[in-house]
Amino acid sequence: MTSPPSPCDDEAPFRLMAENLPTLCWMANPDGYIVWYNRGWHDYCGTTPAEMEGWGWQSVHDPAVLPEVLERWTTAIAAAEPFEMTFPIRGADGVYRPFLTRVRPYKDDAGGVLRWFGVNTDISAQVEAEAALRKNEALFRTLAQAMPNQVWAAAADGQLDWFNDRVHDYSGATRGTLDGEGWGRIVHPDDLPEATKRWTNAIASGAGYETEFRLRRGDGHYRWHIARAEPVRAADGRIVRWVGANTDIEDGKTAAQALARLNETLEEQVNQRTAVLQATESRLRSIFETGFQFQGFMSPDGVLLDANPSSLEAIRAQLSDVVGMPFWETPWFAETPGMTEQVRAAAATVAEGGSVRQEITVNLPGGVRSFDFSMRPVLDAAGAVIGIVPEAMETTERRQAEEALRQSQKMEAVGQLTGGIAHDFNNMLAVVSGSLELLGRRIDPSDTRARRYAEAAGDAARRAAALTQRLLAFSRQQPLRPERIQPNRLVAGMSDLLAHSLGGAVRLETVLAAGLWPTNADPNQLENAILNLAVNARDAMSEGGRLTIETQNAHVDERYAAANPGLIPGHYVMIAVSDTGSGMAPEVAAKAFDPFFTTKAVGKGTGLGLSQVYGFVKQSGGHAKIYSEPGQGTSIKIYLPRLRGAATQDEADEAVPPLVLGDRHELVLVVEDEPAVRQFSVDALSELGYRVVEADCAAGALRLLETQPDVALMFTDVVMPEINGSRLAGEARRLRPDLKVLFTTGYTRNAVVHNGVLDPGVEMIGKPFSVEELAAKVRSILDAP
Fold it and tell me: Between β-strands 483-485 and 367-379, what pairing exists: parallel, antiparallel or unpaired?
């Protein structure tokens, strides 16, 4: 089975890269004969190249699993298919450690294997972490069993999956019958809706859970309990489990009810209310009967006595610390220059019986926030000020939207103005340039001074013409010649031009996304835009640095589009030019796209470079955004609309596999709450040859499954309101155990799995997906046994 090594010249870069990787890398001939290992392999195993060549790797494998490794490896070789397996490898210290091994074939155009490339990754830490998790789970259950309270646990999605013996002893329920949502069977029917609602809200928000309900004892008698649960979070903050406990409060509840009845009797006998009660009633009405986000109550001299829990985190977190101090000295105003004095003056005005209402902008820990702020007095029966009520409603998002609209309108107005100027200026330049050209024909060749003047004037006219082109680009009135573009090819083709323009002090890097969508734009103007951004980035890196050009598929949702007037939701191709230069302050970044705005010295720039980029992108139906921080560099991203349609001749060299079609006998159920995405899925599946029915929620999907017994596949979103895709799949399979399910989500596969929304091993396709990807995925699931 051995074959002589056949080194290739194009393997040298791979070997150089692999030599410096922290993993164990190797390379084999088509028949599996290993011809090369990287340095990491020999460092870990304590071997030499001669010992490991060919099939010598077997000497460092655990004899107990070696036969299975050989069988699966030889099977992969025979089938020319990728190989993946986890098994132990012995290190130089004699210790076996678990490694995840992945092997992929490198094939020629005919599908023949040219090389096998393998990577072995040490997963000891992962294995140890999983063991520790199992140990902690066992410890928790041991402790919970020893507690006198009823203790239970649930998965991250809220499905209860464990109860201690106290629960079963109390309820008489057998193990397993309370799992999932079965616990509701021992809750009093009158209490179940509220308990379920609070549990659902806690799961959605990640906040603690607390409610009171009656639980049925084994003899059928109900007793009151208080249930509390808290989330268990991973190091990255995501919820991995819920732990809860039920405490019997029947006796206390009975006593409280008796006390309440006594209080009602006493209250009926009270005929007069004291001035203190009147003030308290007025105070509570002032705080809680208004519709503002934040309400408080201050003494006439400005001391904050009470406040409601505002929805703004920066305020809510400090409530307990600020009660009892002068309102203007609270940390909410300390970071905003002049705000303390402004609030003190407002409080003094209200203490005299007046009212104050104004728009304020405050520097809170979470960022700059805007509020509609007011103060009004609370008066007693005699008209004297007995307190002050401060109120604040956040207007940050509204202000940001208004500012975005104002900026858009400003740029539109300036664009119209500059466009008109540019058109008129071009007319004048035509006369000037033409006249200079005619004049040059009549100047005596011997009159060098006159010829020099004419040439200088002509050069100035040409530069003025270039300037007007930039003005036309900004005003979106330049004549464009859009065509189908593969942005990766365009960026790659500019490498020599960019390297020459940037100079030796700037290192150029490109990160080109695989499967990048095409776009429809003027290639010359797009090249000019990228070059403009690159030159600007170079000028921001006076001491040298790194410039990165990145491409990526992007999706603009409704919320982002609403915050950026003129932008249409949908799919875009993103091209980002990022530098490690000096960066821009927020006020500079806000003006960077304005024409004639520049931070360069006089004579070093016109301030039209970025405005030209902005105008070209807008004229092409796209969007431009600046991300920058002083000292941290700048990233300017341009978004051009995705071009849909058949491939053109310039893509003939790209292998486009034929669509895998279905037949009209196969029925697919599409479940998606977003109308635009649902319509695309329905249209795509119909075009692929399937019959399609659709639902916008889980309830509708279950009804269709009951009335459409020939549904072969359910294609459902993971994240939906009320019931998510995972729970829908469970309900659907209770109706149809043989139903096949394909999930889709805007999250990455790892994010979904780690958040516990889906179980490992389910079929899923990420958003956004192409018709080709959907065709292959659906066909593979339907054809699976």
Answer: unpaired
- Residues contacting 712, CB < 8 A, separation 6+: 666, 667, 668, 740, 782
**Backbone phi, psi, residue 160, to 5°:** -70, 135
- The lowest-confidence range among 65-79, 452-466, 547-561, 667-681 is 452-466
Positive/negative CA dihedral, 39, 42, 48, 52 = negative
In contact, 39 and 15? CB cutoff 8 Å: no
* Total length of the chain: 785
- Which residue do the tokens 């009135």 mark? 477
* C-alpha span between 433 and 461 (Å, rounded): 6
Supply the angle between the helices 448-474 and 609-619 in degrees, to the nearest 10: 50
Q: What is the pLDDT of residues 418-453, one digit of tens each?
A: 545 554 554 455 445 555 655 666 677 777 777 776
What pLDDT score was predicted for residue 776?
Answer: 87
Query: What pLDDT, on a 0 to 100 scale, did the predictor assign at position 2?
Result: 53
The region of weakest confidence among 72-76, 200-204, 343-347, 368-372 is: 368-372
List of residues 6+ apart from 270 with CB closer than 8 A: none
- Which DSSP helix (H) or strand (E) runs through 550? strand 545-556
Distance CA(234)–CA(236), nearest Å, equals 5
Residue type, 412: E
Percent of the chain with pLDDT over 70: 75
Burial of 690 (0-12, 13-18, 19+ CB in 10 A): buried
Count of C-beta atoms within a 10 Å radius of residue 343? 25
Q: What is the mean pLDDT of the chain?
A: 79
In whole angstroms, what is the distance from residue 259 CA to residue 272 CA? 22
- What the block records as the tokens of 332 is 């909410």
CB 567 within 8 A of CB 623: yes
What is the distance between the alpha carbons of residues 508 and 506, in angstroms, rounded to a whole number?
Answer: 6
Owner of token pair 């046994």: 785
Which tokens hold the place of 649?
A: 């001749």
CB 639 within 8 A of CB 556: yes
Give residue-wise pLDDT tens across range 118-135. 999 988 888 887 777 677
Where do runs of H (alpha helix) occur along 236-312?
Answer: 250-269, 275-288
Q: Is residue 189 scored above 50 in pLDDT?
A: yes
Q: What is the DSSP letter of 766?
A: E
Most confident of 175-189, 526-540, 598-612: 175-189
Handedness of CA 122, 124, 129, 134 (dihedral sign): positive
Give the number of other Cβ atoms within 10 Å of residue 289's Cβ. Answer: 8
Nearest CA among 419, 398, 407, 409 for reference residue 625:
407
Q: Which has more pLDDT, 293 or 743?
A: 743
pTM of the full structure: 0.33
Distance CA 297, CA 305 (A): 6
Q: Which runs of consecutive H residues, i.e. helices, occur in 32-159?
A: 39-45, 49-52, 66-79, 124-146
Amino acid at 237: G
CB-based contact 723:671 (threshold 8 Å): no
Q: Tell me the Ramachandran region of residue 570: left when phi exceeds 0, alpha when psi lies from -120 to 50, beta otherwise.
A: left
* Closest among 562, 516, 286, 284 to 408, alpha carbons compared: 562
Q: CA 231, CA 235: separation in Å to the nearest integer? A: 13
The answer to whether residue 139 scores a pLDDT higher than 80 is: no
With tokens 């009633």, the residue in question is 281
To which residue do tokens 């509020």 refer?
371
| 45/739 Cα distance (integer angstroms) | 48
Cα distance between residue 89 and residue 297, in whole Å: 69
List Cβ neighbours of 591 (8 Å cut-off, separation of 6 or more): 597
Q: Is 621 left (phi over 0), alpha (psi -120 to 50) or beta?
A: left
